[in-house]
Amino acid sequence: MTGSQTHPNTLDVMQLNIALPNGHRLLRDVSLSLRPGEVRVLVGESGAGKSMIGKAVLGILPQNLKVTEGEILLEGQHLNAMTPWTRRKTVAQSAALIPQDPLTALNPARRIGPQITDPLVRIHGWSRTKARETALALLDRVHIRDPKRVMESYPHELSGGMRQRVLIAAAFAPSPRLIVADEPTTALDVTVQKQILRLIRELQQETATAVLFVTHDMGVVAKVSQQVTVLFAGKVMEDAPTERIFTDPRHPYTRALIAATPSYADLDRPFSPVPQALIAELQDDIVRDDARHQGGAR
Amino acid sequence: MTLQTLTQTPEAPEAGAARSLFTVRDLRLSFPDLARKPLLGPAPRTEVLKGLSFDIPAGQITGIVGESGSGKSTAGRVLVRLLGPDSGSVLYDGQDIGHLDEAALRPLRRDLQMIFQDPMSSLNPRHKVWRIIAQPLKRYGLGGTKADAIAALGKVGLPPAFAERYPHELSGGQRQRVGIARAIALKPRFILADEIVSGLDVSSQAQVLLLLKQLAREMGLTIAFISHDLSVIRHLCDRVIVLNRGEIVEQGPVAQVFRAPVSEVTRTLLAAIPLPELDAGWLD
């Protein structure tokens, strides 16, 4: 996995470090890659930095966080080397976000239609007519029964599942090469979750879009992804194909995450939180890492 | 705290074996639908609970499951009498509490406690943890000193130092433990736990579930546990009630309902849970 010139990968993240202004590292040498049409899950507990990776790729990190080291390549283009304006344009052209909370992601005071079509017109330079037709077709594609009516609706008139469908349609509309899905089903009911996961997979497979999928649910990991990055405190614990994560998890933290996920079907499997002793051990490792990192930087 | 306690759920005794703390018959409840209210005159009413009959056995954990809008939270809130029914009977320990007024309910309030879904909005952000736990104790004349609060914190596995913290200084799992500590400090007979782990990530969720199970056993608590996640219900509960659009579609001991679900709704809910195992055809 090197940054070679013939880029087969949609996304390469190489040795990415993100830190607070005081130098405290939040992301520690994270590397990962994503091929076209591949789904990679970032999994970990809250605070593991999984959403931060997606935000760093899209360039929407909170202002106080800085990428201190590392490279992000989107379809082979070095994002860090670009001017902010070029970078925004490049990212907007080829990447999109499906956010966690569909209510805060939609402007409550505007109708759904323009919220989907505006970016298509402004960023992608489409005609109003083409944007509207695409939006209607995609709303239909995400199983919204009356797309015309929904285009005229306000966000509060739709259910949570409907809103998430709208955002999925909006994300896929400009045919992006990469989609960052940041816990897109955490706010939803289990039955709606399954419909949404199915929808993301269908669209993603039809269009061979690469998806960076953030979740804390090992059940979701097992069902949606081909590749998994397990994170703890901003550090990669394990990076492996999904199949191996569940048949032969190598890192104790991966095993602990699986054991912390309840399963109604397998009551013989131990069900327990991540052991405190393991967390302490991993944190010690990280403190040592950081000390070494600081020493090396000076 | 052993892992085995939660893993090897003992088979629930058959209905009738345990005494019922709650006996609910033909519970009906409707809300006015203000969106369809005419300019003059009353709003039409939407029926939320359409004649529920169920028992909550004493000393057991009963799971209430269903999709959003199935009425599970509404049913729970009737049990702790945050809502009153339109009709039907809600027998608590043999007494119909469905139509009691606030004054008559007051002696029962202490015994009917609740743990909420969102601990951030159910813990006063301006109070330290110890005051949050101690205030209800004081209210019921059961003490209410910092030491009492620290003792309750100990029961939920939080060290005494947490007494001096504010809710925003805690993680989600720790906040939920404070909510549990506040409820159990009153030594209630019944606790309604409404989606208390759905906002937590996996490891905190497992911790809170283990804790609740252990406390229920130690204190002989009766718990109604509302959730949309049948995996959680299977691990924690003795019995389960499945709701759909305000009606009970299935109820019974968990082992039986999970082994041979009779309702299509239950089967759909089971099929919707992504189990942490490889299953290539799950999304097809």
**CATH classification class of chain A:** Alpha Beta
Task: Please work out how many helical segments of chain B DSSP would assign.
Answer: 11
CATH topology of the largest domain in chain B, which one? Rossmann fold
How many individual β-strands of chain A?
10
CATH superfamily of chain A: P-loop containing nucleotide triphosphate hydrolases
From the helix content, strand content and strand pairing of chain B, which structural class follows? alpha/beta
Helix-strand topology string of chain B: HEEEHEEHEHHHHEHEHEEHH
Structure classification of chain A: alpha/beta
Helix content of chain B: 25-40%
Major sheet attributes of chain B: 6 strands, mixed
CATH structural architecture of chain A: 3-Layer(aba) Sandwich
Strand content of chain B: 15-25%
The largest inter-chain interface, given as chain pair and residues per side, is: A-B, 43 and 41 residues
- Mean pLDDT of chain A, as a whole number? 92
Keywords (chain B): ATP-binding, Nucleotide-binding, Transport
InterPro entries (chain B): AAA+_ATPase, ABC_transp_ATP-bind, ABC_transporter-like_ATP-bd, ABC_transporter-like_CS, P-loop_NTPase
GO molecular function (chain B): ATP binding; ATP hydrolysis activity
Family (chain B): Belongs to the ABC transporter superfamily.
Q: Could you outline the blueprint of secondary structure elements for this entry?
A:
The complex is a heterodimer of chains A (298) and B (284).
Chain A: E1 11-19, E2 25-34, E3 39-43, H1 50-58, E4 66-74, E5 77-78, H2 84-94, E6 95-98, H3 102-105, H4 112-122, H5 128-141, H6 147-152, H7 160-172, E7 178-182, H8 190-207, E8 210-215, H9 218-224, E9 227-232, E10 235-241, H10 242-247, H11 252-259, H12 276-297
Parallel strand pairs in A: 3-8, 3-9, 6-7, 7-8
Antiparallel strand pairs in A: 1-2, 1-4, 4-5, 9-10
Helix pairs in contact in A: 4-5, 4-7, 5-7, 7-8
Chain B: H1 4-7, E1 20-32, E2 45-57, E3 61-65, H2 72-79, E4 87-92, E5 95-96, H3 102-109, E6 112-115, H4 119-122, H5 129-139, H6 146-155, H7 172-185, E7 190-194, H8 202-219, E8 222-227, H9 230-236, E9 239-244, E10 247-253, H10 254-259, H11 264-272
Parallel strand pairs in B: 3-8, 3-9, 6-7, 7-8
Antiparallel strand pairs in B: 1-2, 1-4, 4-5, 9-10
Helix pairs in contact in B: 5-6, 5-7, 6-7, 7-8
